[in-house]
């Protein structure tokens, strides 16, 4: 068998999928290597441990959201209504086309109480999501109200991602996005 060249990013993409579907603890380095078409030892050329892959996977998703979703809230050339519509559309595009739910939500439940580095990254992801949504809502609400709404709707979105995964239905998940959009007049 010839050696296959695989990038760090490809390993992360496969790992994210496995972690989302199987969970962190039920995904082994051998599973990751197999998904990448590699022998297990080849993974160690890119990552020193499964924990490093897990943390880098969280950071990878967080960066994706920062670059492609959260930044919409801070685009001064858009109206608040357009911001919220684009914000929700991008979130929907991600979660409706992604098997296994939310990696950060899943790992928050599975491992964050045992791994401080994971917990810190997960908390920052959700904090940044709340801040971005609050930044949009501040146009229509006082600061405290905008903050409370952003926390509530990030939590509702996460809950509906879990339910959508569990019941294989996006109907209620989509209603949360519609409600968030309706908050901006």
In short:
This protein is an all-alpha fold and 185 residues long. It has helices spanning 8-22, 29-36, 40-43, 50-68, 80-96, 103-110, 116-137, 143-167, 171-182.
Question: What does this molecule look like?
Answer:
With 185 residues, the protein is an all-alpha fold. The chain has a single domain, classed as Tetracycline Repressor, domain 2, CATH 1.10.357. It has 9 helices and no strands. Helix 1 crosses helix 2, helix 6 crosses helix 7 and helix 7 crosses helix 8. The longest helix has 25 residues, at 143-167. It is elongated and about 55 Å long.
The top level CATH class name: Mainly Alpha
For the secondary structure, the number of strands is 0
* Pattern of helices and strands: HHHHHHHHH
The CATH homologous superfamily is called: Tetracycline Repressor, domain 2
Average pLDDT across residues? 95
Structural shape = elongated
Using brief descriptors, characterize the structure shown.
single chain, 185 residues, mainly alpha, Tetracycline Repressor, domain 2, 9 helices, 70% helix, elongated
Chart the SSEs and their pairings.
Layout: H1 8-22, H2 29-36, H3 40-43, H4 50-68, H5 80-96, H6 103-110, H7 116-137, H8 143-167, H9 171-182
């Amino acid at each position: 068998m010839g050696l296959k060249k695989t990038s760090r990013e490809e390993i992360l993409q496969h790992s994210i999928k496995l972690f989302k579907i199987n969970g962190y603890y039920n995904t082994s380095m051998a599973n990751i290597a197999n998904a990448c078409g590699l022998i297990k030892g080849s993974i160690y050329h890119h990552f020193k441990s499964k924990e490093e892959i897990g943390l880098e996977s969280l950071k990878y998703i967080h960066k994706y959201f920062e670059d492609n979703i959260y930044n919409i809230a801070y685009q001064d050339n858009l109206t608040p209504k357009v911001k919220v519509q684009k914000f929700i559309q991008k979130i929907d595009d991600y979660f409706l086309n992604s098997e296994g739910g939310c990696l950060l939500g899943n790992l928050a439940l599975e491992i964050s109480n045992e791994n401080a580095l994971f917990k810190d990254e997960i908390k920052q992801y959700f904090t940044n999501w709340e801040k971005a949504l609050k930044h949009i809502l501040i146009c229509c609400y006082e600061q405290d109200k905008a903050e409370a709404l952003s926390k509530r709707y990030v939590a509702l979105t996460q809950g509906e991602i879990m339910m959508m995964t569990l019941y294989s239905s996006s109907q209620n998940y989509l209603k949360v996005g519609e409600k968030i959009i309706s908050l901006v007049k």
